[in-house]
Structure formats: C-alpha cells, structure tokens
Amino acid sequence: MNIELPSGKEEISIKLHEAEEIREKIIQNSYLKCLEVGLAYGMSANYILSSSEKVTLVSIDPFQENDYNNLGLQNISNNGFSHRHEHISELSITAFPELIKSGDKYDFIFIDGDHKFEGAFIDFIFSTYLINNGGMIVFDDLWMRALRLVREYVNKNRPDFKEVEFSSDNIFGFKKVSDDYRDGMYFREFYTRKGFLKYHINRLAWENDTLTGKLLKKLKSTIKNR
Ligand SMILES: C[S@@+](CC[C@H](N)C(=O)[O-])C[C@H]1O[C@@H](n2cnc3c(N)ncnc32)[C@H](O)[C@@H]1O
Q: Are 46 and 22 contacting, i.e. CB atoms less than 8 angstroms apart?
C-alpha cells in the first residue's frame, strides 16, 4: 500500500502496527461498514479500506483541504479505494446528527479527531447511536489523560459495551454487546485518584526529563526485568 506522508508530520498518523491491528480486528469480525473521525493523511483510512474489497468507509474531517492539502484523499485515490470511500468535510459535531438522522448504522467506528476530553467523549456518545450490535468503537491515543478518562467512563457507565483487547498499548476499544438498558438516573463515578496518580507517575517516567522522572523510569524497568 502506498501512503505518502510529508516529512516531519509522521506523528499525526497512527503508527503502522496500530493500523495493522485495526485492520486485523475488521477482518476477524467481518466488519463491512466503517466510519472514521479524523482523516489527516489517511493512514487509518487506507488500512481500514484495505481490509476487504467489500469494506466501505465514511470519514469526517473539516480540515482536509486547508491543513492537509487533500493528501489523505489523494492517498485513498492512489490506492484505488475512492469508490468505497465518502468524505464529509464537517466537524464531527455537525456531521454525526445528520448520519444518525439518516438511519445508517456502522460495524466499526474509529475515533481519532478532536482529542480534548469533550471532543472524544461527544464522538463516542454520537457513535453509540450509530454502531450495530456486535460492532466496535475504537480510539487512538490512550497515552493522553483525556482519552483515559473516556475509557474509564465507558467501562464504568456503559454495560452495553465491553472492552476489547489490543496488543498496541496506545489504542483501545469497545464492542457493543447489548441494548442500553440503563435508567435515566444511572451514573457510576469514573474519576479515581488512583487513575490520576498512576497516569502522572507514568508520565514523569516517559518524559524522563527530571531527576524524579529518571529515577521512576529506572525503577519501572528494574521491576519489569525482574
Ligand atoms: C491525529 S489526526 C488523525 C490521524 C488519522 N486517523 C491517521 O491515522 O492518519 C486528527 C484529525 O482529526 C481532525 N479533527 C480535529 N478535530 C475534529 C473534529 N471536531 N471533527 C472532525 N475531525 C476533526 C484533524 O483535522 C486531523 O485530521
């Protein structure tokens, strides 16, 4: 597959092993109708579309022309996938209600657009109205605290979704396993101090740029190699 990425912009796209794992999940589950928020240079889109000749993809991203010079669309075209792809050049917040009104449903939704907590959270909530039973909603960037909180919310508050295992540690996702039977007062606390502390301790160790960070990194690798 041919995906052109401008040099110095590689970080914007999902990693190759993540793209391959997403494709694997689509193949394993025989998913056909896919939706993505966040096209950028089309890395995830091309991998989704390459999973089968029957797969279709709708992508949502209003910045394709201005910020990406339409390179995501060009990459899809270069790989011969355009006839199975539709692009909606809008913010997800306006695109989702139209899709919901249309009555269309999807087997697989990849959320990789606005990474603020409310952005990813709203994309998930809208996606719950579009996903088929047995379908999957997947996110990138679990390294971000905002995305960790979205994951906690789903695990604690959405018994109709079950977390799916991924070997890539930066992606996570959920399968729709039942209808939503919660009553209107349902709420489970999803912020925990433990989650907050764990995240910030790990972060000090990754960033490794303070003495505490360096010590924590060393301690973590000693424990891991025991
Ligand atoms: C990290 S990039 C996506 C990378 C892409 N999934 C890939 O693997 O190549 C995030 C994308 O989300 C888009 N985006 C940001 N906010 C958005 C929003 N509110 N609605 C739709 N797309 C959005 C940006 O224009 C950008 O293209």
A: no
How far is residue 18's CA from residue 24's CA, in Å, rounded to a whole number? 10
Query: CB of 35 within 8 A of CB of 130?
Result: yes
Is 31's C-beta closer than 6 angstroms to any atom of ligand 1?
A: no
Q: What domains can you pick out in the chain, each with its CATH number?
A: 10-176 (3.40.50.150), 193-224 (no CATH)
Cβ of 92 closer than 6 Å to ligand 1, yes or no, is yes
Q: Is the CB of 40 under 6 A from ligand 1?
A: yes
Kindly report which listed range (17-21, 125-129, 196-200, 207-211) carries the lowest average pLDDT score: 207-211
> What SS3 class is residue 131?
strand
Structure tokens belonging to residue 21? 């794992």
Position 222 pLDDT exceeds 80:
yes
Record the tokens describing residue 111, joined without a space: 């959320």
For the chain, where are the E strands, in sequence order? 33-37, 56-60, 85-88, 106-111, 131-139, 161-164, 172-176
| 82 class by beta-carbon count within 10 Å (0-12 exposed, 13-18 middle, 19+ buried) | middle
Q: What is the rounded CA–CA span in Å between residue 128 and residue 136?
A: 10
| CB distance 136 to ligand 1 below 6 Å | no
| Mutation choice for ligand 1 from 35, 37, 41, 65, CB with most ligand atoms inside 8 A | 37
Please return the burial class of 55, using the count of CB atoms within 10 Å of its CB with bins 0-12, 13-18 and 19+: buried
Q: Is 115 in contact with 144 (CB distance < 8 Å)?
A: yes
